[in-house]
Design a protein that fits this description.
Chain lengths: 315, 495
């Protein structure tokens, strides 16, 4: 187990260093100067130079890279060029929206997908199964931003149950916070649930063909009992893989939904920062997402070994 | 601090108690304003972003003079002023009893500090040129400031009204970006980055106090989200609504009222006057005649916008209608191209993100194709546009709106991106700078407009409209936008 952890830690470190180099270099070659962006069309060149100096943009490239890497370890990520507040603070504030939103959406999609997928597999070939297959096909095909707009039109504009967007902050209470995240979470969850339900169904159908299910049935278990005791657990591996991918996607890829609901999340932060060339923010957010994805993959691997103990023993 | 919180809590409890007893028809005293872009920071003296002024101009920060809703320059922190006969010395008398939000008193020294800071070597003021003619600023006494100019500048009072020329305190100047401290009728309370800025009424305001008690600015850039936020009444007013196509739908709803006015944004198809064959005036004129302005206004701007024939705002008293010089006339365009011996012309067309450019660009490209010019469209982000087009002058054509008020002077700049800098035009500009008599200034501004229209420097497309939407109960918003601001000073709920 120690060897396993060491190996993991080493590959983690290498991934992070390589990613940081790629992120930094790519953002260096992107055209656009944050100082020129902020000062607009009428500014004189010497004013832009003064601002570059004030922002620390005139330091050599390698010094800025080392300063940034050093900062990642100490949590000192520098000060945003545009917002003029510490990057770490900015990111932390956005995480308080993005992580709960991703978790909320993932919970919803799991709660929908598991029963639906299991039901469809258990009633294979029935009208229920056909309905689930058709419905999930629709769920995958419908773009989530369009679905989001539909939700806003029905629940915010017409019924007035929810506000059309924005986030009151957790200071306003957990209920208000969750309420503001409900429509965005549903919009994010439904397409994910559709994918997950289909994966669940096909994974279950595969395991239901296995010998041990036949054995279990031969032992006298009913179809339902065999399904619940043996098939579901064995079908979880592909489902977990998809879940891991989905969480990373929800964390980083909720940007369109964040725009539709004007939520102050990570996606919108990075989007605004890219267009304003607030590169000091962009690279730290991107690094954070890289680390998050690697971490989620790691957690998924651990989860595999919990679901299937044989996988844990092999390493 | 805990004691203050406790006191605050008690006040809140009392207010809530009152609210229960108070008659139900009490007027609302708070407002939620929707803005498309979030300000990068809140210091108007250190950035060009319109969004900064849209939050703080006239609300939090004030200058010696200010823009009135109709574009006039009126008294701000300066109660009155005298101009010497040679136009070189301005003496400003400040209002008595003005305090910054941090409690410090406004004195002549603060004015000296603010102007010196904006002019300094290491200044990051985006409009440093506004102060170029000020040679010296000194405080004669606590409430009197004397400004000495190096040459007469008829625009000084106008320049001082800009958001970039607001008066800041030496104690707070360095932190205004995140915690703005001004003299205005509203004080800054909180900024949740990415979501909202909150202001509250400054009860110690020196002038007419604001009627609103609190104002929240929310940032919604997505047109559909903006529409939904209005319909759900999450936002009370959207002074520059990003979904003009839905304006008529909202206006038809008795809850809302559309507010359509003008801005200072001259939208132009800029041409690189230094690049062949665009350095030939016949080619530029040919392009001008190839463009049907109304088709662009209808197709890209949903009909909102006023055609312009020169780089000047039609609502300005000095505006000259020069549309006849560049009427839509494809035959004339083709004839001019043939005369110039240009065939099979291919030009690059750089388009920054705003709708007027992206949608307008498609229409422009189609119109150019009709006269035999192939325009290759490149969509760019602002940062890339600034570096490549604006900074390096690496482009043939681009579409952009110049939103600064009265900015015809850019045509005198040698190194400006469209590369005009004609000596004759520069002579008109120097004469204008030295002229203070209003009639003579109007005549000179007319000459300047004619000159750039006759030289076909750019294709002048249209004046950008201000398309706003508000809750029908709100009164006192600006209709036009003489400067980019959301002045809440006179705003109130009528019902």
């Amino acid at each position: 187990m120690t060897a396993f952890l060491f190996q993991r830690a080493l590959s983690f470190a290498i991934s992070v260093v390589v990613a940081s180099l790629v992120v930094f270099v790519v953002l260096e070659v992107v055209p656009g100067d944050p100082a020129a962006f902020m000062l607009g069309l009428n500014a004189a060149p010497d004013t832009v130079a003064a601002l570059r100096e004030q922002l620390g943009l005139d330091a050599p490239v390698w010094m800025r890279y080392l300063g940034w890497i050093g900062g990642i370890f100490t949590g000192e990520l520098g000060t945003s060029y545009t917002y003029r507040v510490p990057v770490a603070e900015l990111i932390a504030a956005r995480l308080w929206v993005s992580v709960p939103l991703a978790a909320y959406a993932l919970t919803l999609s799991t709660l929908i997908a598991f029963p639906v997928g299991i039901l469809a597999a258990a009633r294979r070939g029935s009208a229920v199964d056909a309905g689930v297959m058709g419905g999930t096909q629709l769920g995958i095909a419908v773009p989530n931003f369009w679905f989001a707009m539909l939700l806003v039109l029905v629940f915010s504009v017409t019924l007035r149950w929810f506000s059309a967007g924005g986030f009151p902050g957790w200071d306003a209470g957990a209920f208000e916070g969750l309420r503001a995240l409900t429509l965005p979470a549903i919009a994010l969850a439904l397409p994910q649930a559709a994918i997950l339900a289909r994966v669940m169904r096909s994974a279950l159908l595969d395991t239901l063909e296995e010998d041990y299910i036949r054995t279990a049935r031969a032992k006298g278990l009913t179809r339902g009992q065999a399904l619940w005791r043996h098939a579901v657990r064995n079908a979880l591996i592909p489902v977990l893989t998809i879940l891991g991918l989905q969480f990373s996607f929800l964390l980083a890829g909720a940007i369109i939904i964040e725009n539709v609901f004007f939520l102050p999340g990570l996606g919108r932060l990075v989007f605004q920062a890219i267009s304003a060339r607030d590169l000091i923010v962009v690279r730290s957010v991107v690094m954070l997402l890289v680390i998050a994805v690697i971490l989620v993959n790691f957690l998924v691997e651990i989860a595999y070994s919990l679901v299937d103990p044989r996988l844990g023993r092999r390493v | 601090m805990p004691i203050r919180n406790l006191a605050g809590a008690m006040v809140a409890v009392c207010v809530m108690g009152l609210a229960v007893v108070a008659p139900a028809q009490a007027q609302r005293a708070d407002i939620t304003v929707g803005l498309v872009l979030e300000p990068p920071h809140l210091d108007p003296t250190a950035g060009a972003a319109a969004a900064i002024d849209e939050v703080v101009y006239a609300n939090v920060f004030e200058g010696l003079t200010r823009f009135a809703p109709d574009g006039d320059i009126i008294s701000g922190l300066a109660d009155s002023w005298e101009i010497s006969d040679d136009g070189l010395t301005y003496t400003f008398h400040l209002h008595d009893g003005v305090n910054f939000h941090d409690g410090t008193a406004l004195t002549a020294e603060d004015v000296v500090f603010s102007i010196d800071r904006a002019q300094a070597e290491d200044s990051v003021n985006a409009q440093k040129a506004l102060f170029a003619d000020i040679a010296e600023v000194s405080a004669l006494d606590d409430l009197t400031v004397e400004m000495t100019l190096s040459r007469p500048n008829g625009n000084l009072l106008f320049n001082l009204a800009w958001g970039d020329a607001v008066i800041v305190g030496p104690e707070s100047a360095d932190t205004n970006a995140t915690d703005p401290v001004g003299t205005g009728p509203f004080r800054f309370v909180d900024w949740v980055q990415g979501d909202r800025v909150i202001l509250e009424r400054n009860d110690a305001y020196w002038g007419e106090p604001a009627q609103l008690e609190a104002a929240t600015f929310r940032f919604i850039s997505d047109p559909t989200a903006a529409f939904a936020a209005m319909m759900a009444e999450d936002v009370d007013v959207f002074p520059n609504f990003p979904a003009p196509e839905t304006l008529s739908v909202l206006d038809a709803d008795p809850r809302f009222e559309a507010v359509v006015g003008t801005t200072e944004g001259e939208t132009i198809l800029a041409m690189n006057n230094k690049r062949s064959p665009l350095d030939d005036v016949r080619v530029r004129e040919a392009i001008a005649h190839a463009i049907d302005r109304q088709a662009i206004i209808d197709g890209a701007m949903f009909g909102y916008g006023t055609p312009i024939g020169t780089h000047f705002a039609p609502h300005h008293p000095a505006y000259v209608d020069l549309l006849d010089l560049s009427q839509y006339n494809p035959e004339r365009s083709r004839a001019l191209l043939a005369e110039a011996g240009v065939t099979g012309l291919r030009l690059s067309l750089a388009l920054p993100p705003p709708t007027y450019a992206r949608r307008g660009g498609e229409i422009v490209a189609a119109q150019l194709r009709a006269v035999g010019i192939e325009a290759e469209i490149t969509n760019m982000e602002w940062a890339q546009w600034l570096e490549q087009v604006f900074g390096a002058g690496d482009f043939d054509l681009t579409i952009v709106s110049h939103t600064e008020p009265l900015d015809i002077g850019i045509y005198g700049r040698e190194d400006y991106y469209f590369g005009y800098g004609d000596p004759e035009f520069q002579a008109i500009m120097s004469e204008l700078d030295a002229t203070t008599a209003p009639d003579a200034r109007i005549a000179l501004l007319g000459d300047a407009q004619r000159k750039i229209a006759e030289d076909y420097v750019n294709v002048y497309l249209f004046q950008l409209a201000q398309t706003g939407i508000k809750n029908a109960g709100i009164e006192g918003m600006w209709v036009n936008a003489p400067t980019q601001a959301t002045d809440l000073t006179a705003v109130y709920w009528a019902r």
